[in-house]
Amino acid sequence: MNKLISSAILALMVVGVQAASADEVTLIAPGGLRCPVDVMKPGFEKKTGHVLKATIGAGGATHRQVVQGAPFDVPVVQPPYKDVIDSGNVIASTETPLATVGIVVVVKKGDRKPDISSADAVKRMLLSAKAISYPDGNGGLGGAAGVSFDNTQKKLGIYDQMQPKVKRVQGVSLLELLKRGDIDYAITFASEVNDPGVEVVGQLPRDISTPTALVGFISSHAKSPDAAKALLAYLSGPEGAAAYKTCAMTPGR
Known about the structure:
This protein is of the alpha/beta class. The chain has 10 helices and 11 strands. The protein has helices spanning about 1-20, 35-50, 60-65, 80-85, 120-130, 145-155, 160, 175-180, 225-235, 240-245, and strands spanning about 25-30, 50-55, 75, 95-100, 105-110, 130-135, 165-170, 185-190, 200-205, 210-215, 250. The radius of gyration is 22 Å and the shape is globular.
């Protein structure tokens, strides 16, 4: 009987230790990280015992939340982020490159794929389109893919010319617009294309569209610094690299 009681007490002690070491860890990140976070979440929680709570939103909006001191343990931002470091809300020495993600052109499955092999080819494609859609950059405060593609159109010298045929979206699936035939092309991050009803044409040429970097930090206000450190290590480790590749991203810088 005494042995049974001792075993029960020991089991309760083990459970208590595990519960004490299992913290909720919070992440805030732009939309480009949605796919890899979904892929990584089960493995991270199983490996560490921590519970991951992720907030994914438009790049400009999440960036602004970090600058304003929103209480997240691990913020992920996109360049430029000097204001993030200057805010004092992240530990600058924990700056960790995670991955880069390119902007791709997407068509409805079965539709003809246009030539996007050069800047001139992309320009011809856009000017010949009846309608296109991409995330709303909102003057730098919205989706990072939208900010990037606004800049691409300006580099091509067709920004003003394109405006009558552009449908910027917020909170609406541009892939659904594509499948319904409302637009000819969707433009977004490669990691955001996960619909069997569409096909990726390819990534925009680097001379008109530089892939967007994603960089993680540990927050100065992390509730559990150890849990935050474990999450950032996982995001930047081999498990993270595998998830980024699965989501059409490039690990590292």
